[in-house]
């Protein structure tokens, strides 16, 4: 592989103008497609095949009037302290205006529907739209804001909530934070504006192509609102990192006296090989989300994997093309340094090429020396520390975000609190119980018996009378739990209703937002084990191919599990328990961790963890293959890679941290989890645990049975085939770098 990538790097260097034009053309096409073809994103979640989804489908088929998929909202009115809520002209005017607002199908008056709290102070109007929540337009939402103003002006408290009126996330430019930090880190790492700017430029072009392509695709298929942001988050982080590794190797090759074209070819052939395999592990982890069999999660994974593929292609082609324009100006030291090195003969032979790095006493070399001198003690401290951090993960609870987790000053959170105080927490999470009485001898008796049985269950506040469809074969009951929608008591109630004996020959199913959330959480929880088995198995084979070892991939996998456990523990402590919540911008009420976060976090973190494993350990293997003793190979390989891996980890952590400011709960939790996971994996697992374990294993780290060695193809990630002096191509004229 190194030879092919070496040729690709030189080809891109020579044809730099053509390569740059191709990528700029793709960016222009993506922008044009995004402007002309993009459509709205969706906010809803559904999982085909679950009971809640089957019940919703049955309602849509037999009882479309129930509006199972229609967007809903609740307008909550509260009279001043000491007064009762009455049908004042201001309240009636508000309801009339909402009834004539765009996309509104019907409004249930709180006085007609008897939706008044026991103390008479609070009431709510139920608003049903004729479209799903994802299709509610900004104009329809603005009409509600305008309609409630007269009632507010009269002294009433008026707030609203529901899936129809969820706020749109503003453009917070969270990615700018990551780019800014990346620019500073690159400048410190390379000490050159040009060297720091080229990875950023190539990353911005790559992310622009990926983001605009996804945006254009939204005009043809439904894309979740979190999909483009997650793709942007991951694409930006890996794009900068991959370019950083190749740029670092290019500067090293220049420092040995090579001409820029040859240096670019060798950089792509060596560091580029690691980039390819690192990117492949990320793609495997993300694309492997299809095994979970949840459409919106598969969509997120494929979109993010697409941006990673773009990042790898950009690093292997556009970056060497840009280096063709920069030439010596990104190298270490003065431009004429290479000619002086050539006169001294330092560019001949592998040992001479590596001598400058080996002779330099750096912080990375000191740290590697410290770890390898005390490997067992360092390993125990790191593992015990991560184990303590992972303890809260034993209390992990999953759910979907609702108005209870909104910001305290938002109207959604205020409406939630008003309903909880006036009617009880369960009013914010009603259950829709569908009674399929098509085969029952007496449908009315079957529905009534079902309602009676549900009323006898614990944690039930109210069960509405059965409401039948025109055909009389399907009834709908509304069940109000005593507990809030995200509590374990409500979860148990849903399971209890589903486990009830069949009444009068009817079939009973539970749906609604609360039941859907429970089903999604259960499905995602049960999918974790097969998903882990898939990505760990595939990545183990890939890493065994890269490192030609059976123990190094095993060590990498166990280190990843440590990272994930510690990250989950921190996520639970902050977002579920509320520890240091204000520090990380968690202003709403704490609650369960978002259902899709663990499985998606596992996929992304596994891919990124293998990135650092490959970039760090390939240099150790390179030293070992070329004759270094085991401990020396670990120290020298670490000294070569630690600085650039540190810079990459800081950049990636900064990029992910910027998304903690997002208004979407999923993006906020994902940003926190990924930022922490990268920091833990890079600085604790890869830079502490890995050299400690490698020192303990010694030569055994590189053990591979002979029969397996013969079966595995040689991918030459270390670039052995490139260490011979380059043979001039008689068909190509000598090129001079500009």
Outline of the structure:
The protein has helices at 2-14, 16-37, 51-62, 89-99, 138-147, 149-153, 174-190, 193-217, 226-255, 260-287, 295-326, 337-344, 350-359, 363-373, 375-390, 411-423, 443-455, 488-498, 513-547, 551-576, 597-625, 630-658, 665-697, 706-711, and strands spanning 72-78, 104-108, 122-129, 157-161, 398-399, 431-436, 460-463, 467-468, 474-481, 507-511, 593-594. With 738 residues, the protein is α+β, with helices and mostly antiparallel strands. Mean pLDDT is 82; it is low at 333-359 and 729-738.
Helix content: 55-70%
Cα gyration radius (Å):
30 Å
* Class per helix and strand makeup: alpha+beta
* Average of pLDDT: 82
Main sheet summary? 5 strands, antiparallel
Would you count the extended β strands for me? 11
Report the sheet-strand fraction. 5-15%
Give the overall shape. elongated
Number of helices: 24
Q: Could you tell me how far the N terminus lies from the C terminus, measured between alpha carbons in angstroms?
A: 29 Å
Unreliably modeled segments: 333-359, 729-738
């Amino acid at each position: 592989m190194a030879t092919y990538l070496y040729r690709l790097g030189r080809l891109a260097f020579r044809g730099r103008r053509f390569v740059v034009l191709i990528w700029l053309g793709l960016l222009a096409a993506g922008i044009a497609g995004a402007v002309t073809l993009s459509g709205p994103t969706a906010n809803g979640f559904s999982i085909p095949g679950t009971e809640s989804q089957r019940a919703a489908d049955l309602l849509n088929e037999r009882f479309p009037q129930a509006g199972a998929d229609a967007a809903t909202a609740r307008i909550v009115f509260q009279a001043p302290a000491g007064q009762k809520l009455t049908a004042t002209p201001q309240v009636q005017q508000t309801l009339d205006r909402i009834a004539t607002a765009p996309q509104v199908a019907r409004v249930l008056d709180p006085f007609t529907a008897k939706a008044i709290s026991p103390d008479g102070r609070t009431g709510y109007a139920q608003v049903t739209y004729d479209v799903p929540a994802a299709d509610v337009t900004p104009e329809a939402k603005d009409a509600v804001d305008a309609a409630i103003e007269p009632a507010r002006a009269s002294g009433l408290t008026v707030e609203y909530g529901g899936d129809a009126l969820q706020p749109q996330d503003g453009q917070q430019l969270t990615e700018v934070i990551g780019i800014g930090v990346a620019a500073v880190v690159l400048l410190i790492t390379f000490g050159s504006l040009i060297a720091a700017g080229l990875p950023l430029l190539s990353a911005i072009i790559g992310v622009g192509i990926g983001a605009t392509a996804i945006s254009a695709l939204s005009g043809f298929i439904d894309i979740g609102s979190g999909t483009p942001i997650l793709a942007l988050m991951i694409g930006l982080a890996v794009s900068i990192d991959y370019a950083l590794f190749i740029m670092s190797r290019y500067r090293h090759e220049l420092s040995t006296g090579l001409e820029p074209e040859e240096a670019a070819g060798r950089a792509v052939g060596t560091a580029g090989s690691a980039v390819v395999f690192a990117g492949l592990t990320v793609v495997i982890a993300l694309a492997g989300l299809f095994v979970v069999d949840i459409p919106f999660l598969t969509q997120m994974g494929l979109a993010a994997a697409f941006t990673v593929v773009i990042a790898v292609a950009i690093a292997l082609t556009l970056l060497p093309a840009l280096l063709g324009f920069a030439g010596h100006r990104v190298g270490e030291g003065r431009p004429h340094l290479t000619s002086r090195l050539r006169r001294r003969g330092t560019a001949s032979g592998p040992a001479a090429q590596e001598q400058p790095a080996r002779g330099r006493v750096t912080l990375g070399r000191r740290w590697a020396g410290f770890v390898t001198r005390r490997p067992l003690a360092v390993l125990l401290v790191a593992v015990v520390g991560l184990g303590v951090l992972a303890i809260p993960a034993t209390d992990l609870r999953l759910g979907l975000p609702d108005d209870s987790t909104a910001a305290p000053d938002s109207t959604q959170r205020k409406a939630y609190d008003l309903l909880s105080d006036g009617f009880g927490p369960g009013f914010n999470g009603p259950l829709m119980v569908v009674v399929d009485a098509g085969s029952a001898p007496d449908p009315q008796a079957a529905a009534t018996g079902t309602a009676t049985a549900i009323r006898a269950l614990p944690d039930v506040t109210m069960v509405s009378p059965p409401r039948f469809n025109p055909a009389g074969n399907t009834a709908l009951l509304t069940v109000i739990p005593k507990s809030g929608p995200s509590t374990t008591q409500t979860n148990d109630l849903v399971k209890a209703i589903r486990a009830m004996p069949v009444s009068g020959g009817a079939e009973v199913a539970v749906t609604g937002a609360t039941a859907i959330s429970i089903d999604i959480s259960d499905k995602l929880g049960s999918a974790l084990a097969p998903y882990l088995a898939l990505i760990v198995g595939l990545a183990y084979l890939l890493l065994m191919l890269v490192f030609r070892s059976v123990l190094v991939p095993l060590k990498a996998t166990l280190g990843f599990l440590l990272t994930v456990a510690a990250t989950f523990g921190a996520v639970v402590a902050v977002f579920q328990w509320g520890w240091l919540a204000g520090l990380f911008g968690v202003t709403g009420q704490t609650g369960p961790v978002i259902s899709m976060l663990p499985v998606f976090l596992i996929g992304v973190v596994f891919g990124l963890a293998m990135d650092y494993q490959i970039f760090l350990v390939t240099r150790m293997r390179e030293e070992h293959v070329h004759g270094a003793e085991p401990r020396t190979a670990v120290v020298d390989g670490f000294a070569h890679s630690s600085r650039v891996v540190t810079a990459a980890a800081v950049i990636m952590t900064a990029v992910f941290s910027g998304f903690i400011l997002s208004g979407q709960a999923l993006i906020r939790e994902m940003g926190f989890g990924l930022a922490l996971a990268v920091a833990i994996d890079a600085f604790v697992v890869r830079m502490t645990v890995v050299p400690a374990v490698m020192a303990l294993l010694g030569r055994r780290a590189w053990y591979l049975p002979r029969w397996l060695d013969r079966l595995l193809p040689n991918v030459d990630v270390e670039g052995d085939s490139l260490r011979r002096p380059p043979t001039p191509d008689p068909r190509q004229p000598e090129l001079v770098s500009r």
